[in-house]
Amino acid sequence: GKRHLGIWEGSLRSASLSRAAARAVAGLAPGGFSVETLPNPGTLPLFDQDVMDRGLPESVAALLAAVTRCDAILIVTPEYNWSVPGALKNAIDWVSRAQPVPLAGKPVAIWSVSPGLLGGARVHESLRHVLHSQDMRIMAKPEVQIAQARAKLDVEAGRITDPQTEAFLRGHLEQFLRYSRQTALTEA
Ligand code: FNR
Fold first, then answer.
1. What is the DSSP letter of 83?
2. Which pTM does this prediction carry?
């Protein structure tokens, strides 16, 4: 059957390069994936145990429900100061406090996006470190770094305009679908 893919964005801003790449996924993904965008990390309060103890915020509950119904997760994110953007880390921290841990055993892949030459290459290792803490199944290769993204994306349309990049991303999603089926805990 179809695998349900959740897209998790690392950027909050409307003119974001990485969000544009995230929006393009629905049109690039193979038919074996149904695609849903997870609630943006900007919808969540800062993690605070006191807030949690007073009752789970609705925004967190909505994210948990979305993560739970996904069979696989694709994180599309910028790199901030060689690492994971705080808002995305905050979102992972919230999700990690639910029982049973909804991310455990789920296949995950990362696309980094940057206007710079390195394409956010350094966020991969930082983010994998955090995802391992959740016992996620990480497809580490091929690594997707969309470098010099301003020249490869149409931000307003949420589309990849560079044909080589588009073909590479399509191939990556096909590979991730196969990986998701192989590592699935539930019957594919
Ligand atoms: C950045 N930027 C950045 N870029 C990069 O390639 N490596 C980095 O370490 C950083 N660090 C960084 C820190 C902070 C706080 C900001 C705001 C920005 C630049 C970043 O890639 C650029 O602003 C992107 O356009 C941000 O992604 P979105 O919002 O366009 O998806």
1. B
2. 0.97
The ipTM estimated for the assembled molecules is 0.99
Residues having CB within 6 Å of any atom of ligand 1: 11, 13, 16-19, 78-82, 113-116, 118, 120
User: Looking at ligand 1, which atom is closest to the CA of residue 19?
Assistant: 31
Q: Is 149 exposed, middle or buried (0-12, 13-18, 19+ CB in 10 A)?
A: buried
First to last CA, the chain: 6
Atom of ligand 1 nearest to the CA of 17: 30
User: Taken in order 73, 74, 77, 79, is the CA torsion positive or negative?
Assistant: positive
Q: Given this model, what pLDDT does residue 1 score?
A: 85
Percent of the chain topping pLDDT 70: 98
Q: Which of 18, 114, 117, 127 to mutate to test the pocket of ligand 1 (most atoms within 8 A of CB)?
A: 114
- Beta carbons of 94 and 100 less than 8 angstroms apart: no
Instruction: Delineate the domains of the chain, giving CATH numbers in brackets.
Output: 3-182 (3.40.50.360)
The per-residue pLDDT for range 145-160, each reduced to its tens digit, is 999 999 999 999 999 9
Which residue's CA is minimally distant from atom 6 of ligand 1? 120
Residues above pLDDT 90, as percent of the chain:
95
User: What's the pLDDT band for 188 if we cut at 50, 70, 90?
Assistant: very low
Strand segments, DSSP code E, in the chain are: 3-9, 33-37, 72-77, 107-113, 137-138, 144-146, 153-154, 159-160
